[in-house]
Structure formats: structure tokens, C-alpha cells
Amino acid sequence: MSDTATTNENLHPGMNLGYSGDAEHAEVTVFGFWTFLMSDLVTFGIVFAIFATMKDATAGGPGPAEVTNLTSIAMQTALLLGSSFAFSWASLSMKYHDIIWRTLGWLAIAATSALGFLMLELYDFYHMIKEGAVPQRSGFLSALWALVGLHGLHVAGGLLWMAAMTGQILKFGLTDQIKSRITRMGLYWHFLDLVWVGIFSMVYLAGVA
Amino acid sequence: MRRVLDKLELTARNREEYEERRFYTIGLVLSVVLTVMSFMSVMTDYLPVTWVFPALVILALGQILVHIRIFLHIDLSRQKREDLLMLLFTILLLGIMAFGTIWVVGDMNMRMMQGH
Amino acid sequence: MNFPFGRLEWSDLKPVHLFTHEFSIDNLVGSGAAWMVVIGALAVAVLLTVMGRWGWLWREWLTSVDHKKIGIMYMVLGFVMFARGVAEGMAMRAHQTTALNGGVLSEEHWAELFSTHGTIMIFFVAMPFITGFMNYLIPLQIGARDMAFPVLNQISLGLTATGAALCMISLVVGKFQIGGWTAYPPFTGSTFDPGPGPDYWIWAIALSGFGSMFSGLNFSVTIYKMRAPGMTYMRMPVFVWTALCTSILLVFALPPLTVAAFMQALDRTLGFHFFTNDLGGNMMNYANLFWMFGHPEVYILVLPAYGIFSELTSTFAAKRLYGYTSLVLATMSISVISFCVWLHHFFTMGNSATINVAFGIATGIIAIPTGVKVYVWMATLWRGRIRMTTPMIYMTGFFMLFVIGGLSGMILANPAINWQVHNTQFIVAHFHNVLLPGLLFGVFAGIHIWFPKAFGFRLHETAGQVTAILWIVGFSLTFLPLYFVGLMGYPRRSSGFEDPALLPYMYLTLFGALLIGCALLGLIATLWISIRQRDKLAVPLGDPWDGRTLEWATPAPPPPWNFAVIPHIAERDAFAREKVDGKPFVQPPDYKDIHLPRNTSAGMIMFIATTAFGFGVTWWMWWLVILSVLVVVGWFFVTSFIEHDEVTIPAAEVRRHHNAWIEAISLATPVTRDHETDSRNRGLADTDMVVAS
Fold it and tell me: Which of C148, C221, C282 comes nearest A139 by C-beta?
């Protein structure tokens, strides 16, 4: 199990951070997480489909054009992509340089920009509430809030996870266990980015167009 | 002799690191370009209105592929067949479910004038 | 609304109704059931205290991460809920028999009964049963020590138990919903039913749904990654194949249900408009989502039973399974096609003919792989040396009845006919006809086969046979008449009827239901008799039926580490091959220390916290909701800082245990198949099977 030949192969999705010991265990864990993400992808896909069936159900209330602030969406997109990229950088410095502070620095950047994303999203929601575009107003708004909110909740959960990861890195150092967790976290983070691509293209941009 | 070997290993590691960082940067650049094109297609008038939606779909799919290949490291190598198969199977089922839903409920909306 | 209790009031406590409400049979049944839950729970608690078994229960079972114990706990959970489900079924039959212009129960109570009966039987009987089997068998059959994620496995059990607990609580506090097991809005929306019923349903389903999804994830990763060396995909036992397909279905089919349940919860609790009939809500979306889960669910339930029947035919016909490859392909195609047929549950919703026809054809196609399976089993039995023991009796019943059920399904697949019999008792007959012989008979047959493996003694054969025949006859008398009742136009779920011509059928089904009640007692009696005679029935050597797969190459019950040494697999039916070659039980050259995960209370914490969550949302006790969310999130946060530790079983102990077993085998006399049901069978088979190579 611990021979170096296997540790250099990419046995699982996401970045392989080079395990010193039990690469097989990491492979199983990451594959399990990958399966979870696939299930989550189906969840998102279905909420997307529901949104598609309800996009015209505005019931006389605000429509897509009234609730979309494209500047804010563009900024959120940039922040989320930036966060995703910073996370890759954190993983890479973990893989090639065993310097904890460098990894933590990149993690902090990733977390800050994701926090910025959430703030902007909450700000958008706040504006929508002020304009009466609450989810109770129409089927369309229910679907919009549910879809965007589901993604936002995932991001918030990810932030919590990142906080836990920071603590764990400080406590355990860059062990195999931590590396496996960082790999999974990375998959999760890029996955949320991928879902966001769907949201900004199919919900906001297509809604305004 | 030993020091030379150490140094060689170090450079090899650095080259690998360089390759990987370059790989990620390409991913970032591609994502940014595709995103900017998506926003441009809506926020400017370069594209005829009828082409906007297809363009958005193609750009989004392109970006999703970039993310899957570069950020999620899914490729066609043998070790990752199971992961790739899982992904393809998910896409198949999602296709059935999502398009099925839009087909079925869309048809119903049309026949029952729902949502207006 | 007051602080600690939300919208809960004293009058919601059902046991009190017996004294505060006017006496009627309806009240007696409703309040009596609540009393039974309360008294049952108290009796178990008192029994545990008197016997001083609380510590034992906690250490040996509730906190165990051993997949075998978790599997057994799933089965126990399934049986407790099954007893309730059967009792409800009998109450419903009693009501319908008296329902000519009336009936013994009130209409609302009747509606509550068919809703709880359906919900419980699908989600908290059938699902725990198949999950229990998969838990117990997958690692043993693939030659692994445990699941890929043992702690997650325990959490899944906790979440499933949460759903069951919420259903039980609804019997005592408040009431369950009355919209059928499918709970279609807007009938279950807050406008028509503001009460706690639909909320109980939503949270029981959503929370246990997470559990099922994680089970599926766990099983599929286990099968993908943890197989013993040499066990390629095409060497896996058929049960493992069906388990793999079911697991993948669980991973992908549960999300639509979860989404539907959460959207329904948002509608009800926060006033969203997904499925309401105003402000752009679209209730058709619910039917669509529900059945996108609901149809794969049918195959989730029945595929493992197919797996059991496959193992059963080849074991009890002492033949290699005929057409392994076609069976595997059939299983895989069933799991994909099962995602393409969901609309046949609502042909009458008003879709255009094109859509109805497309889904009708897809439904027809799914009969092909299922037919392949039936032929595979028949060909396996052909010229086999069949032993007509209890599992084979169930198999025979399954064969005859399941084909009828399947054919009635083909009738229903035709949209034009479906329009005629839609929502009649014909449907009730059809799905009971598929699920009872298909799933339940498979489960009972499986219990007879693997009970000796799990507990070290066989189930009493005569008692088992009588029970099996009671099930087959009871089922036939209860549900086959409903086909005719349905064709005569009796709608399902209606509390009464006016046509006296239906009465004979109703008496017949009531009689059948009584037989089913006897069959349930028969199961309990079988267990009781077997426990009393456990010394006579003991099979400690572990292979009572001349089995073919790896789980029989272990003592009964297997040690916590399953295998002293992980086996190397060279062929399908690995254990059968070894027996034919005359070297089934060998001592490995050396033993190694075995590491097993340590017990954890994770599952119980999740169980308590999520039950509190579900109860809190249902009754608007927001403090409880917040508290339970904090517990769940906090638990994950805190445990991530604790390093996993393991229990190490020293090599010497593994050696001692293994040697004792090998020695017992060398001293024992093997029994031939003619004597496998008498007391000479100690679990060492004098094999007479032939393995074609």
C-alpha cells in the first residue's frame, strides 16, 4: 500500500497531493466524496429544471429583468472564480512546499473572496426584499430564491468547512489525512464554481437577454 | 554525487510544479475569457438577439468542460475510469431527468395555460 | 403559539382522546394505537432495566460500526415497523369490509391509515429490509472487513430510524397526513391541511432520504473499491451486482425526492409557491418530481430481492447460475430504464398523447430484462437437485404470483387502458402483487437462508414452511380479488362503497388479511421456536446450505473482522470451487494484526438531533430546531479535530479464533443435502455440487 509507485499516480479526481502513507485509503475516501458530489449535481440539476419550468410563472410580480443586477453578478462571478483559483494555489503550495503559512495564506484569500461573494449575494437578496421580490410573491421568485439560495448555502457550508480546515492544519500539520480532506474540499469548491457557471448563464444572463 | 542527485530531484520537482501551475493558470484564463464572452453577449449588442441564448449555452458548456478537465482533474486515463464513468452516468441521468421535466411540465404548461 | 411547545397543545396528545372524546370504535382504534406505542416503548425500557441490558445495548449494538450489527439493526427496525404496517393493513381491510354505506372508522382516520400504511411499508419496512441485507452481505460476499465508511453507515441507520421515529411519534402526538403515501399537493399544502400531518411526512421522508442516499453511496464505494484481490466485476456474486445497481439508484434517485420534500416544506413553512395553486405555483411539478424518484425506488426495492432469488436458486438447486452475464446485463439495463418511465404513474395528468405513448413504450421495454431474469431462474432450476425447503417455497410463490403482477403492470403500461383503471383498486392489487411476492417473499426467503449465518442457528424448518404457505395463500386471497374489484370500478383510497355486488370480494379479502395476520404471527412463532431449540438447530461451522459464495466460508456468526485473511479470488462462486476441489478450509501461513474502527456514538447523536429537528419543525418549536442544527453542525466540526482511532485485534487472537474453527470443522461429520434440515446439520456441508469450469 505504501510503496511510492502508487502514491505518484492520480488515483482519484481532484489534485493528488502526494500521500506519504495510505494512498489507497485516500483514494476510497475521495471517490466516496466524488459520488456524493454527483448526487449533489443531480440535486442542483433538478432545481435548475424546476426553475426552467417556472421561469414564466411571475404571477404579475417582478420578472427576471427586474431582479437581476448584472454588475453585482459579474462581481460575484469574479470573486467565486478567484476564490476557486486561490484554493488551487493553496493546494499546490501544500503539495510542493511543506510550509503551513503559505497554504494558510492562500486559504485565507480563498475564504475572503468567497465571503465577499456571499456578502454581495446577500446584498442582492436584501435589494430584492426591498423591491417586494420575495419568494412568497410568485412561483418564479420561489424557484429563483431556492436555486440561488441552495448554492449560497453550499458556499456558506464550504466557508465553515474552510474554517475547520484551517484549525485542523494548525493542529495536525500537513498529514495524509489533512491532504485527503483538502483534496475533497478542493473538489467541492470547484464543483460550486461549476454550478455557479450554470446559474449566472442560465438564470441571470439568459433571464435578462 | 549525492548533492548533484538531490539537486536534480529538486529541479524535477520544480518543473512538475511549474507545469501544474501553468495548467491551472490556463484554466483560469480560459474561464475568464469564456465568462467575459458570456456577459458581453448579453450586455452588448454585438450578437443578434436570437443567437444570445444558444451562445450562452455553448459558452457555459465550454466553461464546465474547462472546469472538469483542469480544476477537477477528470481525464481519460485508466486509473480514473470509475470517476469518469460516474460523471458520465450522472450526466446521462441528469439529462433524462432535467429534459424530461422540462418536456413533461412544459407540455402541460402549454396545454393548461399554466403560469400565465 | 407559546414558547416551549410551539403550536403543540394538550388536545394533540392522542392517548388522552380515549377519555376526553366520546367513545367510538374509531376513537378506540386511534387512541388504542397511541397507547400501544406508549406501552410498548415503556415495556421495552422496563425490560432493559430489569435485565440490566442498557449498557450492553449501547456498547454492543447502538454504538457499533460493525456492518453485520448495523444490518441486523436495520432488520429489527424493519420488523417493528412491519408489525405496525400489517396491523394497519388489517384495520383497513376491516373498515372496507364494513364500508357498504359507512364503515367502522371515520373517513379521516381511514385516510390517515392508508397514508401511514403506504409511507411506512415503503420507506420504513421495505427500505430497512433491503438496506439491512445489503449491509450484512456486501462486505462478506466481496471479501472485505467492513464498509468503506463505517461511521457514515451508522449515521445512515440513525437517519432512517429518525424517519421511523417521526412516524411513530405521529401516532401519539398529533396526527399523520391524509394525502396518501405520495402526499400530492395542493391537498397536503398549508391551505388545505395546516395541521402537523404533512410536516411529519415531509421530515420523516427528507431525513430518512438522506440516510438512504448515504447508504447507497457507502455501498457503491464499497463494491467499487473494497473487493478482495482477484474479484473482478464479472466474478462478483449476483447479489452484489444487484446491490451495486440498487446503490447507484439510491445515489441518483433520492435527490428528486429530497428536492420535492424540501420544496413542499418551503411552501408549507415559509409560504413559497412551488406547488400551491395560486401565484404561479405548479403542483404538476410535484407529481413529476415524486415519481422521478418513485419509479427507480420500485427497482431499488426489488433488485436486491432479485439478487436473493438468484443466490437462492443456484444454492438450493445445487447448480451454477445459468446465464450469469445476461442476468448482470438485465440488472444494469433495468436500473437505467427505470429512470425513463416515471410518467406512467400519471398518464391521466393531461399530457399530450406523444408523451404518454413515449413513456408507455419505455415501460413496456422494462419488461424485457425482467423477463430475462425469470427465464434465468427457471433455467437454473431446470434439472437441478432442488430441495423444497422454506426459501424454495417462497421462491415458488414468487414465481407464480410475481409474473401475474408483472403482467398486470404491462396492462397498466398502455395509456389507453391506464385511463380506465387509473386510481382504482386494480392499481392497489398491482403494486401489492409486485411488492409482496417480489420484495417481501425475497426478504423472508433471505432471512431463512442467512439467519443461521448471522446468529449461528437455523430457523425451524416446519414452522418456516407453514408460515411461507400462509403468506402465499394469504397474499393471494387478499390482493388478487382486488383486481376484479378495481375492474368493477371501485376507486382506491375511497372510504366507502355503495354497490352490494362488491361485498363477497370484500369478505374474501378480509379473510385473506386475517391469514396474513396469522402469517405475521407465524414469523414471530418461527423465531420463538427456533430460539427455544437453538442448540438443536446450531450451525456454528457456518455453511448449512452448501453455499457458493464467500460469506459461507466463515464461521457462524462471523467474527467482527469477517475473514482471518482476506481471500484471493480466482473464479466466480469462489467458495463452491474450493469445495469441489476439496480444499475449502485452509490455514493461512501467517496471520496479521487486524485494525477495526472503534465504536462511536455518531449515529445516535444524529438520530436524536434529527428527530428533535423534525419534531421541532413540525410543531414550530423553533428553539428546538436551532438547537438540533447546532448539535449536528457542531458535532461535525468537533469530530473533525479528533483523530480516528482504531481497535487492533492482535494476530494471536485471530489465529486462536481461526484455528478453533478449523479444528471444529476437522472433527465434524459433513451432512449431505438430504439431512440439511435435521439436527445433524452443524454447518458443514458434504458437497455434491458440480462446478463446470
Answer: C282
